[in-house]
Amino acid sequence: MGTHEDIRKAVEETLNLEDGFVVFDDGDDLEYVQYSTDGVELVMNWPAEGPRVPSTTGAVASLLESFGFTKTADLAEMPAKTYVEEDDGIYACFGGDIDLVENFTTAAFEKVYGRFGLQRVNARVES
To answer: Residue 18: what pLDDT?
Structure first.
């Protein structure tokens, strides 16, 4: 399987959980993209501290906006394709859109981490 298939399979598995998360990494513990689920939709959290490129750089918000996301202020009432900037990082609601998650995750490794031509990602799904 390639990167796209790895991501899709892990996202589908995560969406089947009532409460869980998936973390994608490229083999570097500081380069990851993570999503949580309530069994209905996926919410990405990009921490302000921890990854090699923190959410505070503006790169993540810019990438989200390039995918049609808009900024909102209420984390509790976040519709699909919106994001919120909090002190601890950025949260973005992807709904149940597997294609959007796959495309954003791939773009994040390329455009935020500079990992062009990534052949494989590691996926860890947990409930």
So the answer is: 93
